[in-house]
Amino acid sequence: MKTFSLSFFSFFIAISGWSEDRPNIIILLADDLGWADLGYQGSNDIRSPHIDKLAKNGIRFTDGHVSASVCSPSRAGLMTGRYQQRFGHEANSPPSSDGMDLKQVTMADRLKKLGYRTGLIGKWHLGNQEEFYPTQRGFDYFYGLRSGSRSYFYNAQKDDKAGNAKAIEENGKRVKFDGYLTDVFGQKAIDFINTKDDRPFFLFHSFTAPHGPMHATEEDEALFASIENTKRRSYAAMIWAMDRAIGKLIASLKESGRLENTLIWFLSDNGGATGNASINLPLAGHKGIKFEGGTRVPFFAHWPREFKKAKEFNPMMISMDIMATSLAAAGEKQSALKKLDGVNLLPFLDGQKDKPPHQYLYWHKLWFSAMRDGPWKLIYVQDYGYALYNLEEDLSESNNLIKIEKKRSDRMIARLNDWKAELEKPRWDEAQVWFRTHSKNHIRIIEGE
């Protein structure tokens, strides 16, 4: 078959409307995965052969970020292609009565209008009430949990009791499951992609792994007996199970002849957490804060039909780009992407455009903010002040240049404040304990303690 450039391919499917040429689209989202905790990221004790193979045969984003360093707002940015702060989804974990702004159009909404069937397997975390339910937000099918995290085994007395937002549901009905939850999610994903239907599919496979609680099967933990830290041993086993589920999904795609034209994205919702024995080194920080360890995540795209040559993509990009890029691949008109903060990466990946997709990126949650201007990174901590780093020379953010680079920092502070002035007021808050905890964490790193 003749190989077309990505830009020509996007134009072709846009004018033809041929569903046969539109790719299936899969997002594989890990939860609280550490930067260094995959084989292809250099880990010596974590084994992830199926993920590694995908990454090594795809486009690896070395400066790939999420729009928030915690679960719910990160997902809101991913699902809308917009800075979630623009619609008040700034703090984590919406209260039981609230959720992602109903005026926002999701990636599932958009792809459904383009003729895709849409499914979500796993964690939602964008609202517990019926009006926020996945099948009300563009998904034809949902199997998973409404809220944040839960046991990896069925528990009728706790997580799976009636009325618990952590209970496993299938299209609105509470269901019982047998076995280990990551394996269950994996099989449900395979069932979804194998549903007899001529339409292309969009699958959002939103794992709970390796978010706590640190539950793994005895068999999987035994594979990592050499890891002395018991929590990290469980963490490694949880990643192993996620990798196994991904491997089976890929095998099913390959067996049915659909792998070649399936666009697969892999990333984590934020950096590794302090409580799951993850490793973000050499990045500073972790989940919940604005250092690179909170927002820079393992991130790659795999699409054999169009990404003929595996490579690293070093310019900075962000999870919001997934929506714009996927819509473009599905045939959406470029004019329909203008209201997104995310960028269609296709012309950057095939060399049609040689400038970085983003000059500036922004992060903000309640008391803490950050922005990028190319390699320069500005961090703000309420009641403390600012720090400035040159990531090109100091990826670990250990050398604060705020006093040396005053003109640059003043320009960046002004730009960051201008961006923040555009945002909607947060629709809910977080407990002050998180301000105290994360303020200390930011200051500790800034001051080199």
How would you sum up this structure in a few lines?
The protein is α/β, with parallel strands linked by helices.
Radius of gyration: 21 Å
Chain oligomer state: single chain
The counted number of beta strands is 16
CATH superfamily of the largest domain: Alkaline Phosphatase, subunit A
How many distinct helices? 12
Strand-helix topology:
Elements: H1 6-16, E1 24-30, H2 49-56, E2 59-61, E3 64-65, H3 71-80, H4 107-113, E4 117-123, E5 141-145, E6 169-170, E7 173-174, H5 181-193, E8 201-206, H6 218-222, H7 230-255, E9 262-268, H8 292-295, E10 299-302, E11 311-313, E12 317-318, H9 321-329, H10 346-349, E13 360-365, E14 368-373, E15 376-381, E16 385-390, H11 406-421, H12 432-446
Parallel strand pairs: 1-8, 1-9, 2-11, 3-12, 4-5, 4-8
Antiparallel strand pairs: 2-10, 5-6, 6-7, 9-10, 13-14, 14-15, 15-16
Helix pairs in contact: 5-7
Mind explaining what this structure looks like?
A hairpin with a 2-residue loop joins strand 6 (169-170) and strand 7. The chain is built from 12 helices and 16 strands. With 449 residues, the chain is an alpha/beta fold. The protein is globular and about 60 Å long. The protein has 2 domains: 6-349, Alkaline Phosphatase, subunit A (3-Layer(aba) Sandwich), CATH 3.40.720; 360-446, Arylsulfatase, C-terminal domain (2-Layer Sandwich). The protein has helices spanning 6-16, 49-56, 71-80, 107-113, 181-193, 218-222, 230-255, 292-295, 321-329, 346-349, 406-421, 432-446, and strands at 24-30, 59-61, 64-65, 117-123, 141-145, 169-170, 173-174, 201-206, 262-268, 299-302, 311-313, 317-318, 360-365, 368-373, 376-381, 385-390.
